[in-house]
Amino acid sequence: MTLLNFLEYGFIQRAYIAGSFIAVLCAMLGLFLVLRKLSLIGDGLSHASFGAIALGLFFGIYPFYIAIPIVLLSSLLIVWISEKAKIYGDAAIGIVSSVGIAGGVILASVSNGFNVDLFSYLFGNILSISRSEVFFSIALSVLVLLAIWFFYQDLFSVTFDETFAKATGIKTNLVNIILTSLTAITVVLAIKVVGIMLVSALLILPAVSALQISKGFKGALFVSVLFAVISVLIGITASFFLDIPAGATIVIVNFLIFSLSFLGKIILR
Amino acid sequence: MAIISAKNVSFGYGGAVALDNVSFNIEQGDYIALVGPNGAGKTTLIKILLGLEKSNNGSIKIFDKDVSSFNQRNKIGYLPQKIDSFNPLFPATAVEVVALGLLSRKKYLKRLNKNDRLAVAKVLEIFGISDLKNRLVSELSGGQQQRVFLARAMVSEPSLLILDEPSAALDPQIRENFFEIIEKINKEKKTTIILITHDIGQVGEYAEKMLYLDRKIIFYGKFSDFCLSKEMTERFGNFSQHLICHQHKLP
């Protein structure tokens, strides 16, 4: 089979399009999250989505319709617990994450027959994405990208120096809520690409790879997006020809890019 | 005209009192050293002025507006105590960091326009760091970083500049140069300066007035008056008082 034949497949085109949009989101938000030492929020929210997807399957509702509001609420809960209970963000993420997993496990044990479906969400499958899911992903991606564009300077300022940002009149609590809410939507979308278990890799790896070689924040954003999209395209292609899972392949390609960036930085230093 | 007017301001963390019934006025063009021992409430007072904390009692007016409703943040420039509190992995260039000082002027869609870029270029030139504009802040020396952060505080041309222990990370030569720049800003632009410092010896060298705080105001007036005051003798003893004042050729 030639590459041109391969590109004619509808499911490959859908995977490329939806995967690239979601990769752009993950790369942009991931950079803010990594620099704010909130890398594991993706992990926590994806675990919360495990519970939400189980809830959707339990009631026979399309899981993403349930997952988006529940994961959004979970993200707000992380911000709220961190502020009100005066604990560090990682502890708040840990609480929400474990409650999500526990809820999912209980629902799976009391239900009959949806364990196989739930398993498919754990590792994702971008190649099985439907036309309506592509439109859904694109619409939400555009919404998240517009929000990042609108709040870019606020996000930049709060990420660089939160105290100074507050002193200049930026509503830092609101910015934190916006960042975690956008992350919540992105995490749910990314589950389709790499699955619950590997979502955080899509948020973290392009960002840390870009940080190895970039000069300036805008440069890092651009490189992070470039790496994320390249890894998704190569990952989907490789998974098809090698007959291996797409999500895991995308993560491994991301890791190879990180390794090369890291080595390049050491050699060029 | 008083640009800051504090009346009976009190603040406590839990059961501990950080500020106890503090009242003072600061006039346009003043250069004031805010001095006091550790835990005296200096940083707390500044946080209240910046709207980062709310006082438990009393009132503070800034530029004739209550601090809780004051929203002209571009009138205040702020150089935080720990310039190294930013994430060293953050790949921000000097020009990107300085531009952050302009966000206080902007409302919703915060985008830098041509005038903003000119203002950033101008302030970089004033502080002699134009050649560093595309360098990563994390790769600069302590003195260079201090200038970048001072430029960030000054880029909106504030009427009030608050410096929280700015000399802590600087070596003596750079420190002297830094304070020369601050003095010039005060004299030429009539910018009001509030300098928080531990270093009582530094006060008379640069600032005209001193506000000595130890949860309550112990002294507020000219440095020359402080040298003759009983409060200083009680706090520092005759010998230290003589040394500090002699250093600045005061009686």
Automatic annotation (TrEMBL), chain A:
The keyword NADP appears for this protein: no
Keywords: Membrane, Transmembrane, Transmembrane helix, Transport
CDD domains, per the entry: TM_ABC_iron-siderophores_like
Protein's membrane topology: Multi-pass membrane protein
UniProt cross-references to Gene3D superfamilies, sorted A to Z: ABC transporter involved in vitamin B12 uptake, BtuC
Transmembrane annotation, as ranges: 15-35, 47-80, 92-114, 134-152, 177-208, 220-242, 248-268
Gene Ontology cellular component annotations, sorted alphabetically: ATP-binding cassette (ABC) transporter complex
Biological process (GO), any one: response to zinc ion
Alphabetized InterPro entries for the sequence: ABC_BtuC-like, ABC_TroCD
PANTHER family attached to this UniProt entry: ABC-TRANSPORTER METAL-BINDING PROTEIN, METAL TRANSPORT SYSTEM MEMBRANE PROTEIN TM_0125-RELATED
Family as reported in the entry's similarity comment: Belongs to the ABC-3 integral membrane protein family.
Protein name (database record): ABC transporter
Native source organism of the sequence: Candidatus Nealsonbacteria bacterium RIFCSPHIGHO2_01_FULL_38_55
From TrEMBL, chain B:
Pfam families listed in its UniProt record: ABC_tran (PF00005)
Record keywords: ATP-binding, Nucleotide-binding, Transport
Any GO MF annotation of the entry: ATP binding
Keyword Oxidoreductase attached: no
Keyword Phosphoprotein recorded: no
SUPFAM superfamilies: P-loop containing nucleoside triphosphate hydrolases
Domain ABC transporter per the UniProt entry, residue ranges: 4-240
Gene3D superfamilies for this protein: P-loop containing nucleotide triphosphate hydrolases
Family: Belongs to the ABC transporter superfamily.
Name used for this protein in its record: ABC transporter ATP-binding protein
Organism: Candidatus Nealsonbacteria bacterium RIFCSPHIGHO2_01_FULL_38_55
Lineage start: Bacteria, Candidatus Nealsoniibacteriota
